[in-house]
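re: ur question from earlier - yeah i can do the single chain one, its not a big deal. heres the input i used so u can compare w yours
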Amino acid sequence: MNKIVFVEDDPEVGSLIAAYLGKHDMDVIVEPRGDRAEEVVLREKPDLVLLDIMLPGKDGMTICRDLRAQWQGPIVLLTSLDSDMNHILSLEMGASDYILKTTPPAVLLARLRLHLRQHIANPTGEKPVTGLTPHKAIRFGTLSIDPVNRQVLLSGVNVTLSTADFDLLWELATHAGQIMDRDALLKNLRGVTYDGMDRSVDVAISRLRKKLLDSATEPYRIKTVRNKGYLFAPHAWDN
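and the output i got, formated as tokens:
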């Protein structure tokens, strides 16, 4: 049986979801206060954390950010706030998913089970370094990418990237000039299929563009190809 900590201040919502998940082999601990959430999670050591955003004491976004620094399990935001900005912000804060409360219970259950399976397969949430073939550094104008030392230089200046950001850049760069859709990127990087709602690739692309000094409004180095995906432009790094 999987254990879930559900931080939700509405007793009716908390009890309804806990009862539904309980019928499907999930032990749900409901915590109504945001300022007690981290203490409960660290004490109970659940398999997954389910968070509302609007909470007394401490909001769900802040809980997610603070909890992610000390806990590696899946964190899912369950909220009534249908906002692209909140969706993107939650992923930036380290959330695994952002689900609306209007989502049918069966779909919610399926997505929670997906995150639980993924966590069992990859408990640290990181792509193993051994997954990269030990190529020599590749260069595009002023950009140099060294997969052995996991180092990126732009005009001779070191660019600090997280493991996930480096792997995304390597995936794009080794397919330079080709359009990579979200499904291909997610399968190659995380081994999961794009479900039509996951915005993590978009957030990561935006973060990568900023670090590589690409334009936020009219990107020309990592281009967006409408309704198709992303394209790493091999000749856009000359200056």
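The helical segments are 11-22, 37-44, 60-68, 84-92, 105-121, 163-173, 182-190, 200-211. not sure if urs matches, ping me
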